[in-house]
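Postdoc handover notes: sequence design on the structure in folder B. Input tokens:
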């Protein structure tokens, strides 16, 4: 079966097919912080770009704390129009609604193919299938878009430009929060260069007959420096915080941002990538849209010298983003297993 969406539309399911039984996620749902004693950090983007140095520096401190404590935060007052966000969700839905034969040209191909859609994570090797369909598009340095639905390309281009600008601005603030020059990360990692890499990922999680037994996306960390995510109003994202899963309830019109593995490598472990997962529900289709922001594919990334005390203090091996993506895509998605391969044993 090529997609979960087709599966639920073709038969009336009363129970979960056995190849989707992930295990009982109910027990660990008890770990959820229902009333988190700490709330998810909120970053007011307009203050980060403010000309008032006091406001800006206060926000940079908040941003640094968010990266240290959570690896995850919500961004408000970001200036991306709500209409653009809504259109992006609608066009994504229309893509998933295309007939199977219209999507097939993008199915089951290789990691660096410009456009790829499919199901699960790595359906060839996943022992248990995930309750998730996806569309992945490499949108920078070369912009790509499916020719259908007709309106997708324009909206996608604009959405990806806006999120790229947001990522650069956040990385300026993050550089400063580390005591580095504002332009440090963007310059050293070529994030603002014409070769920087951006991957658009849309996830669709159809209603599931036994959501407690299935998994949308298992616990994992993201590969890049930052991921910027939004969703269609249906909850499902959970973030690991202090050993517990926290269900994320985003403020209206906010973006969710998390630090990725390349941030952890670059900062020599000071800002760790955050483990998160997506659970599913039995009522509504959930759509989430993420953009992963990384360096140019062939730029080697290793811990910033400024953040490593001495030669013996380097905690991770350097790697190019390309090799890292290949490593992650060669297996099933599992926690921080890719990053673990780059750790120096100390
Ligand atoms: C991802 C991801 C979370 C979500 O695409 O890497 O973690 O809420 N998505 O769908
Ligand atoms: Ni993720």
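Designed sequence:
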């Amino acid at each position: 079966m090529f997609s979960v969406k087709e599966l639920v539309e073709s038969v009336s399911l009363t129970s979960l097919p056995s190849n989707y039984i992930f295990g009982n996620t109910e027990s660990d749902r008890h770990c959820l912080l229902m009333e988190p004693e700490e709330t998810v950090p909120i970053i007011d983007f307009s203050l980060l770009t403010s000309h008032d140095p006091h406001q800006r520096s206060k926000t940079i401190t908040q941003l640094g704390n968010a990266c240290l404590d959570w690896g995850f935060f919500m961004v408000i007052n970001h200036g991306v129009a709500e209409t653009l966000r809504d259109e992006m969700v609608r066009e994504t839905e229309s893509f998933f609604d295309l007939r199977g034969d219209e999507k097939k040209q993008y199915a089951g191909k290789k990691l660096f193919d410009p456009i790829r859609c499919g199901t699960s994570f790595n359906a060839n090797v996943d022992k248990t299938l995930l309750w998730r369909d996806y569309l992945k598009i490499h949108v920078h340095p070369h912009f790509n878009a499916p020719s259908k639905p007709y309106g997708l390309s324009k909206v996608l281009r604009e959405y990806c430009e806006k999120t790229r600008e947001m990522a650069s601005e956040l990385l300026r603030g993050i550089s400063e929060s580390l005591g580095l020059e504002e332009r440090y990360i963007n310059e050293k990692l070529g994030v603002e260069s014409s070769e920087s890499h951006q991957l658009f990922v849309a996830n669709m999680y159809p209603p599931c007959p036994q959501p407690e037994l299935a998994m949308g996306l298992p616990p994992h960390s993201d590969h890049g420096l930052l991921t910027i995510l939004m969703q269609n109003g249906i909850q499902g994202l959970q973030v690991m915080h202090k050993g517990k899963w926290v269900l994320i309830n985003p403020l209206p019109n906010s973006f969710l941002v998390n630090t990725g593995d390349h941030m952890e490598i670059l900062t020599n472990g000071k800002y760790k990538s955050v483990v998160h997962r997506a659970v599913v529900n039995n009522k509504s289709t959930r759509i989430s849209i993420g953009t992963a922001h990384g360096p140019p594919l062939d730029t080697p990334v290793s811990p910033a010298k400024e953040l490593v005390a001495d030669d013996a203090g380097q905690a991770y091996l350097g790697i190019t983003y390309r090799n890292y993506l290949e490593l992650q895509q060669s297996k099933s998605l599992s926690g921080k297993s890719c990053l673990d391969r780059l750790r120096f044993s100390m």
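Context for whoever picks this up: Residues 63 and 341 are 28 Å apart (CA to CA). Don't rerun without checking with the PI first.
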